[in-house]
Structures are given as structure tokens and as C-alpha cells.
Amino acid sequence: MIYIIILIGFIFLFTRLSYVKIVKGQDYYNLALDLWTRTAPTKGVRGNIYDRNGNLIVGSYLAPTVVVIPKQIEDKDYAANFLSEVLEVSKKEILKHLNKKVSVEILKPSGRYISVDKAIKIINKNIKGVYVVSDSKRSYPYNDILAPIIGVVGSDNQGITGIEYIYDQYLKGGYGGLNIYTDAHGNLISDLTSYYNTALSGADVYLTIDLNIQLILERLLDNAFVKYNYDEAIMIAVNPKTSEVLGMASRPTFNPENYLDYSEEVYNRNLPIWKNYEPGSVQKIITYAAGLEENVFKMDETYNDPGYLIIDGVRIKDWKVGGHGTETFLQVIENSCNPGFMTIGMRLGKDKLFKYIKNFGLGSKTGIDLLGESSGILFNEEKIGNVELATASFGQGNAVTAIQLVNAASAAVNGGILHKPYVLSKIVREDELILKKEAEMIRRVISNETSEKVKYALESVASRGTARGAFIDGYRVGGKTGTAQIAENGGYVSGKYILSFMGIAPMNDPEVLIYLAITNPKNTIQYGGVVCAPIVKEALQESFPILNIKPSNDGISLDARYYIDKRIFLVDDYLGMKVKSLPYTNKYNFIIEGNGNIVVSQVPAPGERLIEGGNVIIYTGE
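RE: above sequence
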């Protein structure tokens, strides 16, 4: 009986061993491998950020990282001496990492994103327990260009602000690492070979931004700062048909590679979508469109401007002393006549005016795919009296963002459709389209017929009115100036203004809208038409060849009175000339771009007409 029990026991033991060895053997072996594995983690290369044409805006470069397995290091004093010398930090700092009771330790920050030369030195030294794994770091070929939109990444290559944060899940990629087999004491298991899991690279993000237009905006803001020493500035370019952003720049700005060197207010705020301010006369576009849509005036209707209006006992003056006298309502917008716009506002009434202000998107977020957008601030309609209604009609009292103004003006000239502005074009991973953004309609705000009238009126402003500083001979340009006081602590700051200008072209079929706002420019007349219009004009001129906008001579001619002290010249052909051989001329000014010796391009093109004292931009090359 005992022998039978022993036999049964042996049979059971044999069966169990066979089950463990044959059936479950691989599972147990895999569990053991997991226990023996030490992984030095790596992240996939972060995806690139491109403009609409595939030009690189933000990339990544190889930046190896040092990791250690403390238990494998036999002589920690020797290893610390070597690493402190190569990484240029104290031995004490290195020993903190080497003495940690962890399986794998990353030497950060000193061993993070090191140079290739340093990595080769460490690899060649071949210290047991010290490893170099592949890693990458963000590179910015254009330094601070587009910084508030692009945003920043943190020390672990994760998005913190801007596009980097919004689309981090696509950009960051997956994890990989160097897998090393060790026993419980951290010693290498000699008969098992270490292996490397390649990390998955991140997807690439394409923006609606046109890098060439962006560079124009950035350069013009820098030039304006040298000339006017302003406090802040905002410049936006969009396609008014779709509200896709072609360029967006602001000052102050920052370098995303060294963002911690700047105040948090600078790198955390994107002024074109965050800053609230009174828009001034640029908002008159909305009042004018509303009045046309509601038929409260006709463009050829006569109006008399005495230079002021008295509203409920309050005398509200025009910007021009003595007023403009008798004029049509077309001339009201040409002259940016405040009493004329107050009259339109009063005819509309509070409910209708503010209905259009809201329908055009003021007072609410546009929904642009960027972080930190403000809603703006509108008058409390329950507390609006006739005085508030009058001032709101010419752009005083309400606070808006630049992107709201740009989007509203786009709707006024594109046929009457308000769109949601956007900066993302598409996301691609290894030629596979993951996400694509299209224009998104929000609502119709005015009829196409009214939009046509607004386009004509704005072109007239640039040809015969306050925006003549932006007139471009041979192109149909429209625009609207703005000069607004700066509100602060319940009142207005004396002597400080936000000057602005909205330029649009071509007015028969608008393809580009550029807006500029400058806060507190110094040593200049405080009018948007004087300071901002010429800058926007230059931006438009340079953008025309980029956007393939052709000349057209069927628009509104420049007002003859503008020629009293100005002559018109045909621009000479300078292509192929040596820069040092450019002739002196008192007809116009040269602006030299580039460091080359030969003229490779010029704006305006040879044979185009230019007003005396204008600028011919010369692009140089070798």
C-alpha cells in the first residue's frame, strides 16, 4: 500500500513538473525576464512643425542622455570623477545619482541632452553600469519667430504651451529604451543579450501659417520698434475667405529655447488673442455694415458734420476740429467721421447695433485653436444709454481682441460669412494623414449685397480717405484706420493711444487681410493712418507675389488732392545690378534686404508706379 502511495506521488510530481516545464515554461520564463529587465527609457523624436508649404518651423536634433544602473557600478568614486569632468558638474552632484537606491537613474539635468562629442567620450570609456541612450531636443531655426503660437516644451520634451501643448498627444511619439538583464544585485546576466526598443517618432504638424508672410510681419514689427519705441504691438494676416491665419506676430516676444529667461507674462500670453482693448475706428466697419444691412442710410445720402453731436446733454466731439461739413455717408467712412457714425448708431438703436456687434463675434471667443483666448468685454446692455450707444458706434467703450476684429472684418468683406479662425492645417505621420482642418462657418452676419457695398466703401477709404497711406498703385486695396485711447482704472490715460490699421486686398476678391495695432508709439503724430497704414502697406506689397495676387487697374483712383505735393514715378529696373551700383535718386527710397552683392528681386516690380517718397524693397543674393 505504501509503494502504491509513493508511486502515485511520483506520478503526480512528474505530471506537475511536466506541466510547469512544457505547458507553462515559456510563461514563467517571460515573467523571469521581466524581473531581470532594467530599462533605460527613451522618448521618440518629437514631431516637426511646418508651415502651410512644408517649410520647417520647429524641428528636433540628436541630444543623447546618460543613464546609470547604480548597482552595476563597481567603483563609484572613479565613475563620478570621470562623469563630473565630462559633464562639467561637481563630483558631489554625480554621486547623488550613483548612490540612489533605484534600478535605473537618469542623470538630469547634467546628463540630459548632452553633445555627441561628450556621448562618444562616455561610450568609449565603457564604465560598467553607465549607458548613453538616444534622445532629442527641440531646435528653432528661426529663434523667436512664431514663439507665442508655437509655445514651449519642458525638460522632458513635453508640450507646456501653444501648439506644442495643444497637439502634444500627436507630437510626442511613443517610448522606447535600452533593455538590460540583471540579477537581483544588479549584476549583468552574461548569457542574456541586451536589446534596444526603438521609440515611435511623433507625428508632424502643419500650420496654416505662411512662413514668408510671417517673416515679413516679424521684421516690420522690429523695424517699427526701432522707429517708434512702442510698448506693445500686434500684427495678424489672414485669408478673409476662410479665416485661416497666414501670420501672427506680437511684441514683446521670447525665444522658446530659453523661455525661462523671460517673465511668465511674456511666454504665457499670446497678445493677438489675449489682449483686450478698445478698438477705436476700426470697429466702424461693423457699424457701417449694420447700417447698410438695416437700410438706415444710403451711401450717397448727404450728412452735415458740425464737428460734434450733443447726446443727452453730453457734447461728443469729432476728431477733426470744426468737423467735415457737408458730406455723403460714403465720405463719412472715408473721413472716419465720428458724428456720422454716432448718427448711424442712433438710427440703428441699442438692440440692433449690439445684435450686429455680437453677430460679428465681438464679446465672445472666436474659437481659434490656440490657448488663452479672451472673450472681450461689451457694455452691459441693461445699462446702455444713448451716450454709450453713441460711443460704441465709433469703437469706444467695448473691449475686444485683435483676432475678433480681424475675424469680424473678414466677414464684412467675404460675402457676409463669419468663420472660425484656425492655425492648424493638418497632422501627418509617415505620409499618413491623421487629421485635417477645414474652414468652418459660424453664421451669416450680412448679405452678400451689403458686403459688396462695404468692400467698395473700404476701397474708397484707402483711395480717397484717411487710409490713403496704404494706397498701392495698380492694386485694389481697402482699409480702415483706428486711433483709440487706452482705458485704465475707470478712465483714459492721457497722451497714450493704441494706433491701428486694417488693410485688405484685392477688394474685388479679398485674399489677404493684414491688421496692425501699436500701443503707445513715441515721437510721432498719434494717428493710425500716419503710423500703421504705411507699415501695413509694406506688408501687403511684399505679400502679393507670395500669394500670387496680380495687379489690377480697375479700382478706385487715388484722390487727386493727394498729388498736390507728391509725384508719381515709374520704378526703374534694378534686377541684376550690383548693390553698390544702385543709383542715387530723390524719387523714392531703397530698403535693402539680405547681405548679397546682386539685386535678385525688387518690390514694386520694374515699371510699376510709386508715389514720391515711397519705398523700393531690394532683395539681394550672390
